[in-house]
Amino acid sequence: MVFAPAGPGSDGRLRVPGVMAFARMEDRSMTMDRRAFLGGMVSAGGMLALGVDRVFASALALGDGTLLDWNERGSGVFVMADLSTGGNSLMLVSEGQALVVDTKSPLLGAAIRGDTEVLSDGAGVTLLNTHHHGDHTGGNEAFADVPSYAHARALPRIEAQIERFKSAGRNAKGSGPAMEVLAKSVRSAAGSWTAEMFVPDHAINDEGTTLEIGERSVEISHFGAGHTDNDLVVRVPSLNLVHTGDLVFNGLHAYYDPEAGVSARGWIGSLERVLALCDEDTVVIPGHGMVGDRSIISAAIGYHTALIEAVQKEIDAGAAKENAQEKSWAFMEGLEFESIRARAIGAVYDELSGG
Length: 355
Ligand SMILES: [Zn+2]
Fold this sequence. Notes:
Blueprint: H1 17-25, H2 34-41, H3 44-49, H4 54-62, E1 71-74, E2 77-80, E3 89-94, E4 97-101, H5 106-119, E5 124-128, H6 134-137, E6 148-151, H7 154-159, H8 162-170, H9 177-190, E7 202-204, E8 209-213, E9 216-221, E10 233-236, E11 241-243, H10 264-275, E12 283-285, H11 295-316, H12 321-324, H13 341-353
Parallel strand pairs: 4-5, 5-6, 6-7, 11-12
Antiparallel strand pairs: 1-2, 2-3, 3-4, 8-9, 9-10, 10-11
Helix pairs in contact: 1-5, 4-9, 5-9, 8-9, 10-11, 11-13
The structure holds zinc ion.
């Protein structure tokens, strides 16, 4: 059995082929509980004997089966919805195929990749970015060897973020011994990263597309400029599941980014299209905040509608932008991400006043 090289290869890429080999070696007819299986196999010696990449073997051996704490929702659906780690990631596993939606940061992306190989049967991984923002694409490098998708307008924007990605990689810090093993590898690889390692190799246009992941059809839609000019919405009809990307900030202020083509009115229009995809049982994964149902989409529509109304009143009353940005209204009470409140008001002020 050939041992994969430890850590980054000569081209700076973080290698994970050993993990794939490990995943393929699992007996798919095994009836033993998967976690029990992993628990039994996860020792550094046991993993290395199976040819698992040494970095991942060492890291996985220090954890309890996966590197990250996934919310396992059944039917092959795993979610990481954690306010402190960037945009929410979704992993969808079906028939030996896995779709990963968004990759957080360089370190967490590497961990997500390793976990994907463990939680799926490792036959094939596909990556999708809901939009270009760095807290959704920062870990793309760990998926540079698999098919990857984003909206066409996301691609140059992702490419332009390379220095930010490298900086985040060089400063990667793991929490706990398992993640620190991985962080050390990411830090040493980051200096030689190039933009091509982060930019998805498939562009999705405004008409959207459908991806086949195992037995799941995954519908990818773009509903016009909203949070950015390249938002994609993910829908899995057979699971009645929707990932909205950053069109929904659940329980949080929304992040307005004028550099990315944000449009408050477009945002509402996009959200209405997303809402139309849902019924009362749909599981809705927002870009940030807790997983919910379609009511979190309605709440997001309410936020932007109220924001437009409130800011228009300020403009009509002759308030300067700076003064309007100091305001807060009842509909904002209790929302987290307070630090981006003024930014949202300012962006809407500019949009409504043509500024
Ligand atoms: Zn975003």
